[in-house]
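Quick one:
INPUT:
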């Protein structure tokens, strides 16, 4: 009898975990759909000035991307040794550089639409991947994968992977490598990123 209840209880736990994962996947997918359709697609296909476009992308990125979380990740072990001022300066310039970079990158998808291919689980319990692709005039569709993090019910993107190239992983490799080689360390990286903004 005990064995029966143990099996039943474990089955209920497995069912509940699956149900919760399904809810998370649906919520994440709807979040990315809204981000791509009402945000990115609408913006890149609109006839607005570059100033207005940048302002809208700034709002979009600040609301839907967790650039503070991403910034901490890309600095890796150097985040722990950075001063509060260095952390703030880095996050500020990293945010501006991402808005500038990705507003230009997404221009490649002008006149096109994101197609949804389902979701994938992540090693992190509070994160999930939403898979999309963008049909291109020539060749295979462009693959765009979104890593979405659920923080107390708030969905935000913590990585964008285009054609298997991760925004976060690439930045982490580049930035930690720069800090290792720079005599000025984190301050040298911040100065370099500010120069790139200009």
């Amino acid at each position: 009898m005990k064995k029966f209840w143990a099996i039943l209880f474990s089955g209920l736990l497995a069912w509940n975990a699956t149900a919760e994962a399904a809810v998370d996947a649906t919520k994440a997918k709807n979040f990315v759909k809204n981000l791509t359709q009402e945000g990115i697609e609408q913006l890149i296909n609109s006839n607005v000035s570059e100033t207005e476009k940048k302002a809208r992308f700034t709002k979009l990125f600040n609301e839907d991307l967790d650039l503070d979380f991403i910034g901490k990740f890309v600095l890796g072990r150097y985040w722990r040794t950075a001063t509060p001022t260095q952390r703030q300066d880095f996050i500020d310039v990293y945010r501006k550089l991402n808005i500038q970079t990705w507003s230009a990158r997404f221009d490649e998808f002008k006149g096109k639409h994101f197609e949804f291919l389902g979701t994938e689980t992540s090693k992190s319990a509070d994160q999930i991947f939403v898979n999309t692709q963008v049909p291109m005039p020539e060749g295979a569709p462009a693959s765009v994968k979104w890593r979405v993090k659920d923080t107390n019910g708030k969905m935000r993107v913590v990585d964008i992977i285009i054609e298997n190239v991760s925004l976060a992983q690439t930045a982490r490799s580049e930035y930690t490598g720069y800090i290792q080689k720079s005599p000025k360390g984190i301050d040298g990286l911040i100065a370099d990123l500010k120069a790139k903004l200009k």
